[in-house]
């Protein structure tokens, strides 16, 4: 089994990791920790380095738990929600775990939502953590 975590490494990220450990142990799964960025230009280097650092920390966390883990930083010119869904399909992922933020309906309408896209578009079960 493969479990994909949409991960930014902040706030809700720790809850995602804990839940992923439970699921990975229960289903003898490999975890794919994924961060998706729309662009990777020179001006984005600080964000890229931060994302890589967060992914490295998550990978170490899973390895300490005895869980196989792959890390992936996606910079493929796609919106993060679409990118995560496409990557999950490419890797034949069995479950996605993603964090959700509380936002007003107007906020969701104006700014979209990575989690919303993943929940609505994914071909596998999606577990959301608030």
UniProtKB/TrEMBL annotation:
Organism of this sequence: Desulfobacter latus
Domain UspA stretches: 2-130
Stored InterPro entries: Rossmann-like_a/b/a_fold (IPR014729), Universal_stress_UspA (IPR006015), UspA (IPR006016)
Pfam families per UniProt: Usp
Name of the protein in its database record: Universal stress protein
Family to which the UniProt record says this protein belongs: Belongs to the universal stress protein A family.
Gene3D superfamilies the record matches: HUPs
CDD domains: USP-like
């Amino acid at each position: 089994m493969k479990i994909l975590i949409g991960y930014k490494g902040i706030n809700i990220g720790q809850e995602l990791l804990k839940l992923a450990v439970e699921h990975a142990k229960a289903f003898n799964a490999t975890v794919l920790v994924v961060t998706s960025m729309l662009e990777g230009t020179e001006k984005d280097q600080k964000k890229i380095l931060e994302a890589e650092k967060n992914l490295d920390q998550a990978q170490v966390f899973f390895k300490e738990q005895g869980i196989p883990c792959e890390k992936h930083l996606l910079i493929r010119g796609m919106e993060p929600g679409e990118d995560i869904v496409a990557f999950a399909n490419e890797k034949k992922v069995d479950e996605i775990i993603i964090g959700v933020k509380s936002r007003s309906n107007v906020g969701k309408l104006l700014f979209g939502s990575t989690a919303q896209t993943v929940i609505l578009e994914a071909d596998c079960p999606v577990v959301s953590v608030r």
